[in-house]
Amino acid sequence: MEAIFPKKGDLITQTIVKEIRDKVRFTKQDLELFNLKTDNNGYTWDKDKETDLNFDLDKQGLRILKDSIDELDKNRQITIEIVDLCNKIKDYKLEVKNGKKEN
């Protein structure tokens, strides 16, 4: 997920990015549960224990991630490793109080 965060931005944007990063950061328990390890090729984990990570994301956070993906795409910097994540985020719609979904 780190690859889709904007590297630079204004203070508000980077504060929101930090909040998102903190929500998706692996805990010690996650490392043990998923048997997460790093090597020269990146991360490996126990595929039998694989699960989706769910976390709250507000409109501003979603907009920052979508804009960052748009920028990566425009500059042809999307890698095969992040294609699925980018598509999930681009397709995600927030629920709002009146029942309508919003980008």
Strand count, sense and closure of the main sheet?
A: 2 strands, antiparallel
Q: Could you say which structural class the secondary elements and strand pairing correspond to?
A: mainly alpha
> What is the CA-atom radius of gyration, in angstroms?
15 Å
Q: How large is the share of residues in beta strands?
A: 5-15%
Q: Distance between termini?
A: 19 Å
Total number of β-strand segments? 4
Question: How are the strands of the biggest sheet laid out side by side?
Answer: 1-2
Total of helices: 4
Mean pLDDT: 86
Helix content: 40-55%
Overall, the morphology is: globular
SSE ordering: HHEEHHEE
Total domain modules: 1
Description:
- The protein is mainly alpha-helical and 103 residues long.
- The chain has one domain (2-102).
- 44% of the residues lie in helices and 10% in strands.
- It contains four helices and four strands; from the N terminus they run ααββααββ.
- It has helices at residues 11-24, 28-33, 59-74, 83-91; strands at residues 37-39, 42-44, 94-95, 101-102.
- The strands form two sheets. Strands 1-2 form a two-stranded antiparallel sheet. A two-stranded antiparallel sheet has the order 3-4.
- A hairpin with a 5-residue loop joins β3 (94-95) and β4 (101-102).
- α1 crosses α3 (59-74).
- It starts with 10 loop residues before the first helix and ends with a strand.
- The mean pLDDT is 86.
